Amino acid sequence: MSDSVATVDPANLIASSGAEETVSGCHAGADTMKDAAAKAGKSEVLEQYAKDYPTGPHDQPQSMCPAFGSLRVGLRMRRTATVLCGSACCVYGLTFTSHFYGARRTVGYVPFDSETLVTGKLFEDLREATYQLADPDKYDAIVLINLCVPTASGVPLELIPKEINGVRVVGIDVPGFGVPTHAEAKDILAGAMLSYARSEVERGPVARPTSDASGRPTVALVGEIFPVDAIMIGRMLEPLGLSAGPIVPTREWRELYSALASPIAAMLHPFYTATAREFSSAGRALVGSAPVGHDGTAAWLANIADKAGVSAEVLAKTSNALLPAIRGALQAAPIDARITLSGYEGSELLVARLLIEAGADLRYVGTACPRTPWSDDDRNWLESRGVHVNYRASLEDDIAAVEEFQPDLAVGTTPVVQHAKEQGIPGLYFTNLISARPLMGPAGPGSLAQVINTAVGNKERFTRMETFFAGVGTGATSGIWPASSGRAA
Ligand code: SF4
């Protein structure tokens, strides 16, 4: 146990107003928070985030609190305790959202106030909570997440021991002013855990990886894909002499070893920059894009075969057996509609490819995530078909695309869908209804077409509703009216 008692320097976060002092949060402004964090010794972390998660053309797309991504990854891991350190209002929102999305584990919380922040007692509270939680019978790991104010105040998670009673401790800073999206926050924790596991492997023997029973080399699958997609990918890899490895972010600690032992990491979701760095440091080959649709699957299999040293003959045999089935699935589930697509999950370009191969007239795809090498194949394929690909898209960009292209269906985030519906255009939420369904291999086309065509078919219903409610809530039918002679004026 470290004897050093850290003190934080929250001077820049304490707003003095007469006798009262308050801790500034979101409303302090990103620049104030960044400045405070840098002064508090967090420059290195923030500089790494700035490199890993480049912003621009917009500073930060409008999406949920980024820390949700890390929290979700922690809560999905077995035998892992996840503890938040941040303002109560942030923790309330994050806890609510995580349970809304089906978390079945407790969210730990170490609260603070101005006094514990100023005196450094918050750090002592965090350390004490970590020691209390560190029961090896219950946990393999404890994840500590600094939210905005503790990060800006420099609460030094790195001073908490990396291991207590045999329980690993992984501390990360996930401030909204340094991490653009919740997608990238998933990468921060996945990367931190892979880094920890890699250092364990380098130090000596670790628990035996949960290896594939077939003994074939595995391909680690990076990205929170639908479980059926992992099975589908496994079937596609089998004739190449390979197997599907663990999905990263993993569901248990031992899977991190299996992932690192995989000779190839498939970067199915392209924003996992820190994760990619860990695989590269372990000497693993990386492959971008994903097996979606006919062309995407053909190119992906060829790239995997190349990295795995599979012969051209075996690749051709595999492709010839698989690709006609995908072509058939696309023809059996056509989509005849003009669509705009946007989201913040990072899989938007893959969905766009599938929509186009199914026959959709897609003009625009916006993603809150940044451009990385792992989506280059998808971007090139889409742009060669005249699609406008917009990385770090803002809400305004996405809405402008709906205005310009007047689609039969707008797939997007909640405010984009709301905007479309107000105009009588059917809309589908990307996160709940598109990203959480099978997309890969022969299963993808049918699954996507079903939900898209049902939504497009609602156009007439939307038109009727728009006509029925025309004018309601605007002009003379809105607002509060002073009563006169018992009637609204
Ligand atoms: S952690 Fe930061 S970004 Fe998230 S809700 Fe709190 S202040 Fe906002």
UniProtKB/TrEMBL annotation:
Presence of keyword Oxidoreductase: yes
Keywords on record: Bacteriochlorophyll biosynthesis, Chlorophyll biosynthesis, Oxidoreductase, Photosynthesis
EC class of the enzyme, as a word: oxidoreductase
InterPro entries in the record: BchY, LIPOR_BchN/ChlN, Nase/OxRdtase_comp1, Protochlorophyllide_Rdtase
Residues in Nitrogenase/oxidoreductase component domain copies: 65-455
GO MF term set: oxidoreductase activity
EC annotation from Swiss-Prot or TrEMBL: 1.3.7.15
Pathway: Porphyrin-containing compound metabolism; bacteriochlorophyll biosynthesis
UniProt-recorded name of the protein: Chlorophyllide a reductase subunit Y
